[in-house]
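Hi there, hope your week has been kind to you so far. It would help a lot if you went through both lines with me. No rush at all, and the record is pasted right below:

***
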Amino acid sequence: MIAIIDYDAGNLKSVEKALVSLGEQVVVSRDRDTILEADKVILPGVGAFGDAMEKLHAYGLVPVIHDVVEKGTPFLGICLGLQLLFSRSAESPGVKGLGILKGEILRIPDKEGLKIPHIGWNSLELQNHGRLFEGLEGTPYVYFVHSYYLRAEEPEIVRAVTDYSVSIHASVEKGNVFACQFHPEKSSQVGLKILENFSKLS
């Protein structure tokens, strides 16, 4: 069973729908026991870093997420869910993130001809043999919606990069923790393959 963490951050239904289409058993929950008993856990999300952390604290989900990670359960952060795994974001100065991974979340720099937020399809440059990308070759296209991006502190955890005004760390993997800045659930067959790869992790 895959648990999707419900903290009022939107975008949960499309992730659930994509996983169900792959034949997975899915539960959307903020119940501690339900989340901890799941085989895999996903933290999706759209919105602001500060608001999201406030909701995670309000629902008592911060210690639950840390327990899931420490237990070794495969954990996937999507979009805002990736950003929350880090300790801070330029979007919400002074707000402490989950601090599970090392790095910083910065605003995409303005550049002539590019709109922010970055909304649309971009190609990925795969590196470091990411388990989420098994079976994908070349430079797969995926769908992004974001104004802030990750600069990971540990280059070895970066599994995919893309370029939009700046080099963006688009996917990371460390132990049982996986994260994508893009939306696999909105990325057609490539995205479904990524979610399928996650669902098959042991």
Q: What stands out?
A: The longest helix spans residues 188-199.
